[in-house]
Design goal:
By secondary structure, the protein is an alpha/beta fold. It is built from twelve helices and twelve strands. Strands 1, 2, 3, 4, 5, 6, 7, 8, 9, 10, 11 and 12 form a twelve-stranded mixed sheet that branches.
């Protein structure tokens, strides 16, 4: 599970439905309810930036609610469904994740302004595995990034898209096995005529093979943000998770990975040490540690779970070139 900000052109109700172009595949998008006319109140970028650095530092990272069933397939997501049904979703932050803000340039490299002639062609395709309803997805989509989240709980996808804008219906529906691609649109960044688009794959991330991604019309991704995904999956599922992620990344694509290290309880969030990161990712990625932070002072509730230490670590992973 991860986290991220919220979002929201110049279309009228009489205008034809917007069309997304993805890897040379035309996907006419039809609103599921009323015609989207850009009049909906936007959640602006300034609002997303409103939280101060001090507030962000003090905010609980909320890993405490994470847990997965050991059962395979749909049952693997059963406890997540229960968490959403009982509104136990305190892992979400209310502002952009501080590490995504701090290391945005490392993750994406230089990015053009939205009004640059090359902006549309060069904005990154960004993947958020196990995304929940994180506000980070909307924050990037509003800036023109081509964002795709993957989430196994329908209620989470509903919340993610509803807070972003108007969900639209693809014709024909984009489905691959148990995976379903859903899309929402919102007014884009100020100064841009193009609407912002946020897409989410509803279904088990471990089922999103390269062939399934192709069937859904997804690209290979230039960037990904994992805050709360690897530390949430069962240790025995880690290799499958890493293989799935690697299969979705473009050559030299980058992943900003956030892990935790702690004692006191097994998990989730599960402890993932630097040695674990290197063992898991080194066959497919170059691994660069970025930072490590002691969170016990900011989040003393970890002592209640028996911890004498609780650290958050960040890594930049770069996909090896094929061959």
């Amino acid at each position: 599970l991860a986290q991220a900000p919220h979002p929201r052109g110049a279309h009228t109700g009489e205008a034809p439905p917007p069309v997304l172009v993805q890897r040379s595949l035309l996907l006419p998008l039809r609103p599921t309810s009323r015609a989207w006319n850009g009049s909906r109140t936007a959640m602006s970028l300034p609002r997303l930036r409103a939280a101060s650095c001090a507030a962000a530092a003090a905010a609980a990272i909320g890993y405490g609610a994470y847990t997965l069933s050991a059962a395979p397939g749909p049952d693997r997501l059963e406890r997540w469904h229960a968490k959403w049904a009982s509104k136990q979703t305190r892992w979400h932050l209310q502002q952009e994740h501080p590490l995504l803000v701090r290391y945005r340039a490392d993750l994406f490299g230089p990015q053009p302004r939205h009004d640059s002639p090359s902006a549309k062609a060069t904005r990154s395709n960004v993947l958020f595995p196990l995304c929940g309803a994180s506000v980070d997805l909307a924050a990037l989509a509003l800036r023109g990034y081509r964002v795709v989240g993957v989430e196994g709980v329908e209620a989470a996808v509903d919340a993610l898209l509803e807070t972003f804008g108007d969900e639209v219906e693809q014709a024909p529906p984009s489905v691959s096995g148990s995976l379903r691609l859903r899309t929402a649109v919102a007014p884009g960044e100020a100064g841009s005529d193009a609407p912002a688009v946020l897409r989410a794959v509803e279904g088990d991330f471990l089922h999103l093979s390269p062939s399934a991604a192709d069937a859904l019309g997804l690209p290979r991704f230039d960037a990904a943000f994992d805050r709360g995904a690897l530390v949430a999956v069962l240790p025995e599922d880690r290799e499958a998770y890493v293989a799935t992620l690697a299969g979705l990344m473009a050559p030299e694509g980058r992943v900003l990975l956030v892990t935790v290290e702690h004692d006191g309880f097994a998990g989730p969030p599960y402890e993932v040490r630097e040695a674990d990161v290197r063992e898991l990712f080194s066959p497919a990625f170059a691994v660069r540690p970025l930072q490590r932070e002691d969170r016990m002072g900011a989040e003393p509730h970890w002592r209640e779970r028996g911890c004498t230490r609780f650290e958050e670590a960040a890594y930049l992973l770069t996909r090896h070139r094929a061959g």
